[in-house]
């Protein structure tokens, strides 16, 4: 079982290392930039290239883990072969491979990956798709070696899942960043927020987030809301505060 | 050591129960609404009232745990006594008590509280303020019985902390609610997001949130961003998506 990785970003890094850990062989890493290709290849102990025409042709699987904007272009440059071509993108349909490969599919791990941070793949939900029943079974075997939480999902549903994940992960993380910034301005150590953040997350394991909502917006405490708005200098932060408070209040009234 | 609680909301519920657990006596609970007063009094096994003129006059401490909008009004209605009067609000200054009590202060536990959810007070950061050195020491002793994480903070800094907490807790929780809503529309079980949400939170214990940022906005992947905007029907959610993506991109460029 030999795998070629096309892409060497956060997701490619963590996925290739996880695959190697369960005994799959990473045959080669491609990246547009030699520094990224080399870095990941060193971690994996495998060859690397920045030349798509130099891809090994005999791999069992080709994992395209690239920015959505370049995925279709790169696929078009890879010579046809007998391997299974998959991508790992939430928002790209499976049929981006149509006309370029005979066997193709998707393996989308729903997680936030950073190059330098180990994650345990066991619990990561992995969403699969394949163009034949045979490769669906094959992909399921591969994914099940990585995680206990594997299921099939259509391209259309997957893009909704990805959108929800952008809210649940990227946007919440950015809001953490904004809250840290507010504390830094006041020279308050930001880690005082961690027990609050941990509890906010722990709560939604026990109740739906709409039921867990607290704070001035759900109470519609205009006194606090107006004081807070007056304290925010940054126009974007002020707008974020207003918009989210209004949205909290609106959802509460709909219930 | 006898304590009277004025207010019976989420925070009052969890704080009074935590105080009772470490051996403090809750003498009485007041709430504007008899149902709330009774509910908390039953949990505590103590008398309750909806009449501010019927408050016990001999307590050591009076905890005002009320919406900011009514706090000053209620304080003005309580007859002077020899107890220490404190409130638990992030955004209200300590001097809201000035002219009404001789001894006063603040005990602000930085946490999200729901009536029905147990929380461990041990790790909750508690921020104190008092109008005399003697009562500062007294309040510190009381707070230290509840938590290992007690410090003093001025009213001015506390209101910035509260603002940051609204971002870190109330806004992130609401964004979880929006992401759940997106999945419900697609009949995808929302708990598939939990490993992602847990990792997003775990990451910021290891790195600052700005360094942990991932997703289409930080990559400025317009392909994905535009697809996502086209998928959002709700105008508020569309605006939230745009505003937060722009803010993520802006912060990334400032670094």
UniProtKB/TrEMBL annotation, chains A, B:
Under Gene3D superfamilies, the record lists: NAD(P)-binding Rossmann-like Domain, ProC-like, C-terminal domain
Specify the DUF2520 domain's residue ranges: 124-248
Question: What residues does the Pyrroline-5-carboxylate reductase catalytic N-terminal domain cover?
Answer: 2-79
Alphabetized InterPro entries for the sequence:
6-PGluconate_DH-like_C_sf (IPR008927), DUF2520 (IPR018931), NAD(P)-bd_dom_sf (IPR036291), P5C_Rdtase_cat_N (IPR028939), TM1727-like_C_sf (IPR037108)
What is a single Pfam family found in this protein's UniProt entry? DUF2520
Where is coiled-coil annotated?
none
Q: What is this protein called?
A: DUF2520 domain-containing protein
Q: What organism does this protein naturally occur in?
A: Parabacteroides gordonii MS-1 = DSM 23371
């Amino acid at each position: 079982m030999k795998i070629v990785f096309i892409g060497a970003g956060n997701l490619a890094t963590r996925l290739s290392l996880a695959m190697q850990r369960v005994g799959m062989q990473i045959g080669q890493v491609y990246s547009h930039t030699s520094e990224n290709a080399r870095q990941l290849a060193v971690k994996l102990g495998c060859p690397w290239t920045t030349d798509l025409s130099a891809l090994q042709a005999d791999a069992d699987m080709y994992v395209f883990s690239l920015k959505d904007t370049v995925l279709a272009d790169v696929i078009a440059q890879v010579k046809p072969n007998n391997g299974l071509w998959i991508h790992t993108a939430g928002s790209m349909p499976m049929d981006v491979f149509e006309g370029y490969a005979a066997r193709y599919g998707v393996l989308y791990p729903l997680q936030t990956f950073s190059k330098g941070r180990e994650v345990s793949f066991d619990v990561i939900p992995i969403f699969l798709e394949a163009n034949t029943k045979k490769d669906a079974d094959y992909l399921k075997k591969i994914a099940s070696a990585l995680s206990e939480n594997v299921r099939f999902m259509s391209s259309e549903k997957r893009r909704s899942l990805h959108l929800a994940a952008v809210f649940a992960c990227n946007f919440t993380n950015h809001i953490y960043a904004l809250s840290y910034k507010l504390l830094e301005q006041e020279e308050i150590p930001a880690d005082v927020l961690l027990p609050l953040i941990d509890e906010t997350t722990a709560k939604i394991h026990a109740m739906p987030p709409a039921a867990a909502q607290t704070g001035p917006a759900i109470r519609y405490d205009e006194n606090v809301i107006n004081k807070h708005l007056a304290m925010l200098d940054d126009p974007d932060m002020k707008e974020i505060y207003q918009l989210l408070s209004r949205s909290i209040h609106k959802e509460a009234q709909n219930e």
